Amino acid sequence: MMPSYFVAHGAPLLALEDNQYTSYLKELGEALPKPKAIVLFSAHWESGVQQVGDVEEYRTIYDFGGFSEALYQIEYPAKGSPDVVKKIKEAFAQQEIPYEVDKTRGLDHGAWVVLRMIYPAADVPVVSMSVNPHLTPQQQYEIGKALAPLRKEDVLIIGSGGTVHNLGVVKLHQDNGQTDAWAVEFDDWLEEQMTKWNIESLYNYKKEAPAVDLAVPPYGNEHFIPIFYAMGAADEERSAKLTHRSYRYGNLSHSVWQFGK
């Protein structure tokens, strides 16, 4: 049985850096058993209908601009997993969850930045998944829940995003190690609800969480919602553990949550 995870992918530059968080992700990959495959919900793939990537070998998407040329030279040529795609289709059909299969899209940086640090050899098959910001948190949770049986087949389910991710307030040129109090306050509230599996409060985070309009801006909830997909995949166990939290640029959170055991 594999746990499921929510993993912050941070800024694209993370792929070139050596810091506390990158070291943690590398250690995580070494500590985890090697999975049969990875199903990854990325904040950078939004769609109105659930998309399921069924690609023989993924190309690397550079969905950003203005960074070091070295970032555009990185490739992560992960293979797909037709067998896992088939099981996902069966699970969605059984739960009457609408979906479409995408046979062309590569891995965006929300996927490959994380995967490259955890499994640098790109030797674990991947099924890339979209997220839908227009669904309710409960609907997002139910999509993850439908895939829970895959964990028993040694499939690692990851939601990639960020608990505090607001590009309008990050301080890219003031990375002095100081963290805005409101960001910590939001993450503290989230930790309390998650560890108690207080699902109703989490579903209602827009009204209950402190500083929510800064942490999860109304125009940018796509980075927060992957947490519900990953959480839903551990519904049977309802166990949540914060395994890492750090910040960059004043308030950009690097949080990793483990769901299940």
Keyphrases for this structure?
261 residues; alpha/beta; 8 strands
How are the SSEs placed, and which strands pair?
Layout (H helix, E strand, L loop, with lengths): L3 E5 L11 H12 L5 E10 L3 E4 L28 H13 L4 E4 L6 H10 L7 E6 L5 H10 L8 E7 L19 H15 L3 H5 L1 H4 L3 H4 L10 H7 L7 E9 L3 E8 L2
Parallel strand pairs: 1-6, 2-5, 2-6, 3-4
Antiparallel strand pairs: 1-8, 7-8
Helix pairs in contact: 4-9
Assembly type of the shown chains?
single chain
Total count of helical runs of at least 4 residues? 9
Describe the sheet with the most strands.
6 strands, mixed
Describe the global form.
Answer: globular
β-strand number: 8
The H-and-E topology, N to C, reads as: EHEEHEHEHEHHHHHEE
Strand content: 15-25%
Distance between the termini: 7 Å
Helix content: 25-40%
Quick overview of this protein structure:
This protein is α/β, with parallel strands linked by helices.
Explain what you see.
The protein is of the alpha/beta class. Helices cover 31% and strands 20% of the residues. It contains nine helices and eight strands. The protein has helices spanning 20-31, 82-94, 109-118, 137-146, 181-195, 199-203, 205-208, 212-215, 226-232, and strands spanning 4-8, 37-46, 50-53, 99-102, 126-131, 155-161, 240-248, 252-259. The strands form two sheets. Strands 5-2-6-1-8-7 form a six-stranded mixed β-sheet, sandwiched between helices. Strand 7 (240-248) and strand 8 (252-259) form a beta hairpin. Helix 4 packs across helix 9 (226-232). The termini are close together.
